[in-house]
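Final report, Chapter 2: Outcomes

The project's central promise was a pipeline that accepts a single protein chain and returns its three-dimensional structure in a standardized token representation, suitable for archiving and comparison. That pipeline is now operational. To close this chapter, we reproduce one record exactly as it appears in the project archive, with the input sequence first and the structure output second.
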Amino acid sequence: MKRIFFTLTLTCSIFCALAQPADTLNLMPRPQAVKINEGKFIFATQFNIGIDGPESPKLVAAVNRFYIQLGKRTALYFPQEFITRADNKPDAKLSIHFDETVAAQIGADESYQLNVSSNQITLSAKTDIGAMRGLETLYQLVTPANSGYFCPLAEITDSPRFKWRGLMIDVARHFIPFEVLKRNVDAMAIVKMNVLHLHLSDDEGFRVESKVYPKLQQLGSNGFYYTQNQLRELVAYAHDRGIIVVPEFDLPGHCTSMLAAYPFLASYPAKYKPARRYQFDTLKNINLGMVMKLINELPTPTIDPTKESTYTFFDGFFKEMAGLFPDTYLHIGADENNGVAWKQNPAIVAFMKAKEIKNTDDLQALFVKRLQIIAKKYDKRIIGWEEAFNTSVSPDVIIQKWKPSVADTLSGKIIKHSNQLIISSGYYLDLYFPSYVHYLTDPVSANVNEADADKGILGAEAAMWAESVNGDTEELRVWPRTAAIAERMWSAANVRDVDDMYRRLWATDFELNDRAINEYGNYIKILARWVNDEDLNTVITLTNICTQVKGYRRLMGLMLAPCRPNLSTPMVSIADAAHAESETRWYFRKLVASYLKDHNTADLEQIKAQLQRWQNNKTRFDAAAVNSPYLQKINDLSDNLSAMAAIGLQALNNEGNKDEQFKKLEQLGKPLHEVQLAILPEIEALVTGKLKAEPATYSLF
């Protein structure tokens, strides 16, 4: 977010010192092959576009979006009011040629070739979707200069590494408004993703209007759901951007909201209502060990897989949903079912004995098999989380791997069974890991050979679970980190330069906010509430260098808190507002690394200026806190930032005892209010003279 807040974080001179070299490009994802030539294509008012190819309403729409956005970016008045296939002059400044119109689908040819010469840009693709991907690359080539906007002369050949490049958004635990979903689709198109996976049902809510089973939204949604017209609009909106929509209805567990509507589906009788799966509110002195024990031993709301009425219900339901979601895939969840509800039901136990079903894993496999047969009637191919895998499961079922593991042996077993894989392990956004951790996690684990990967791994998905996000914070969590994951899905496996990734990521974040999402606006909105929109600078200075505690520590903290949040709890804390990683800290780290390497005087002065700004921010923060109850609550963070900066200044001036400074920094760096001051390693480096490498990963707990 440096383009909005750079005067509030680092000095302008710092950004000048770290400005990108002239021979680098801000392309994300990185294309497969790029050749940069000498010279420029300079945009002028006569810039026009020609389209050569068959009828393609979605490409025409994409071309016009590109043209309008380019006009906004360059502030030039272009001659064409609306571009159509009739505008097919071969000498157009941008000449687009494609051979075939295809529907958004997995396996569609998305390749393209882009050639920029001094007097013309040519974009060629086999399909209209490939041409759309090329337009996104072209827009990223647009560069400002003193003389105007230009593209460097370039020859680019590009295609995706993986067919499936998805984003899963949980809209069940906290409802995500319709317009936010559309903004995410726009952002996905910018970074060439092609699957929007919607987690539409869970214990907390069922989010789809059903006309066949209307009680689902009447009793299972608390009034928050998407109408069928909205979903049709969303699917069309995504298809127009080369993106398919995959609905997920989580079964046989995670289904309290469904059972609230139709309790006959349940494995045990209860008064069901949409709610969190585990209710720990009445328990005293609860700890993490108790939580894990209860998760394994408590019966949880679960569909009864032994009754034929269950399958009659889902036959009608799948038929209706197939009409709403025309793409090939239907996700049935099948995760985190501990089987206890089945083991405690005598009728289900008797069924298992009569059918010689050995355990609840095999019973779930039967359930998955029955749903797969129903789905196939309606031309759907089902997907399940990794718990759906069983050697009796049809090879037609796609398995989505999500559990992290040190040595991945499951992927090989799944591929050997001829099931295809989608990889989400390593791409869980709700863990608050920084982008580089996701970026350096390859969808193909070391235990999977190249031949098996080509055959068995469809691709990957970033996953945003919504226990601790809502419509106001979802974009803050998903972006820009998902852009780094998108590159891992699209670009070659050997594209792994973390510093270069971050340089391009921050540029892409500006583009995402300019063209798609409202990450910047949502961030400022939360902070403005704290100070009644008066002194924003002081809270921005603090929040810009705070990041959440990593892994499941925040989620567990919320579950174990004395006053546990519910679905109506506002998400307006510093842990809700802060980003999972700090762009300000990234630039500061680069500056500290440069200084420790060369001891350059200019670097030293810039570091001191920033440390003084952080140290002095306390005075303004204290003044703002007088009339802000929330700032009073987080005043200790502000104090710690000031103290931490003071230690950095002491170290630069060769003052103070290093051992004492290091001990104090250890205390100052401890989490408060579910966040940490992200600059701790850099301040420590000023004391010790050595900057530690970033951790390869982080603990989950």
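Archive annotation: Residues 1-23 have pLDDT under 50 and may be disordered.
This record, like all others produced under the grant, will remain available to the consortium after the project formally closes.
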